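Subject: mismatched residue count in predicted assembly?

I count 227 residues in my input, but I want to confirm that the predicted structure covers every chain. Input:
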Amino acid sequence: QVQLRESGPGLVEPSGTLSLTCVVSGGSISGSHYWSWVRQPPGKGLEWIGEIFHRGGTNSNPSLKSRVTISVDKSKNQFSLELTSVTAADTAVYYCARLPSDSFDYWGQGILVTVSS
Amino acid sequence: QSVLTQPPSASGTPGQRVTVSCSGSSSNIGNNYVHWYQHLPGTAPKLLVYRDNQRPSGVPDRFSGSKSGTSASLAISGLRSEDEADYYCAAWDDSLSSRVFGGGTKVTVL
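Triage response: the counts match. Full output below for your records.
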């Protein structure tokens, strides 16, 4: 059974960089899948952030593209998200998920990240 | 405002059939697959239906998806108390080059 778990700081200062890691267990990150990040601001719906293939190809939401970096560390079976120049609008629960083709089949439990001084 | 439009809420009594709609355009639903997710607060979202009408292993056949033109629907038959959750549709949008979600529909079991 594939499991994903997000980790990282729960509090980030405005204008800072949000950095999260998703550890994958029960399967190899080098499989034929994309690995993705999705977030949910408080009281709002889901928003796709971006995704990466294990060979490094990435794709991201045009509205966030200039601030998003997604990378993969195959040696640790994990992938990461960096979101720069954060504001209060980036406060959300951040989920990592697996994308075998065009739908997310496995998700992490999510991590709440608050942007505040 | 979400690219895919869903009603904010839907409800039914136990045993009833409830339908959640998802409206889009030719650049998303009209030309790409629709997927549905169930989300209970504080938990990981769960894939319910993929590629318009396919159910992953383990998802009860009480859940079914359909699509016509630029709209899609999720039907929940034999409604149960444990079905009370938020439901989201999702698709790829060719114009935006982005995955997009609906705003979510909260299903309440009365």
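The radius of gyration of chain B is 13 Å. Marking this ticket as 'not a bug'.
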